[in-house]
Structures are given as structure tokens and as C-alpha cells.
Amino acid sequence: MSPRRMLQIAGTAELVTLILMLANMLTVHAPAISQILGPLHGLAYMATVITAILVRGDRHIVWVLSLIPGIGGLLAARSASPQQLDRHILDEDV
User: Fold this and answer.
1) Most buried one in 38, 52, 70, 71, CB count within 10 A?
2) Largest Cα–Cα distance in the chain?
3) Where are the domains of the chain?
């Protein structure tokens, strides 16, 4: 799996958990749902940031964008150039 794809998956999971948490707060505000989604969102957020740090290569903007809650992972995946990610994959194979 490519690093960009991993970053997209982590960013999507972060965004989905955030939307579900906000929807829960705005509607029924069930504590059980909050107890499950809170840690899941935190885990997705940390996975996004760590993946962005590993993928960043020479561009620090990639991991800085990942710090934005909710959409940061998707922005970071978009800002990482394909050449940079390909070079990262080749460096790991050597």
C-alpha cells in the first residue's frame, strides 16, 4: 500500500469519527457513543500525524497540515507530491 493511500485512509477515518462525534453531540448526546468515538478519533488523529511525519520527506508542510483536526490528514495527503512519495518508497526498498 502506498504511503499516500495510508495517509488518505487515516485522514478519512479521522474525519468520519469527528463528524460522528459532532453528530452525537448535536442530537442524542449518548455517553456510550462518546466513550467509544472519543478514543477512536484520538487514535485516528495520532495515526494521521504519525503517518504524515513518516511520509513527509523534504516537505515539512505535509506533517504541519496533518495537525489540523478533521481535514488535516486529507490535506496532507493531497500536498504530498507523488514524486516525493515514490522516492520515499524507493528509499525503503534499498
Assistant:
1) 52
2) 53
3) 3-93
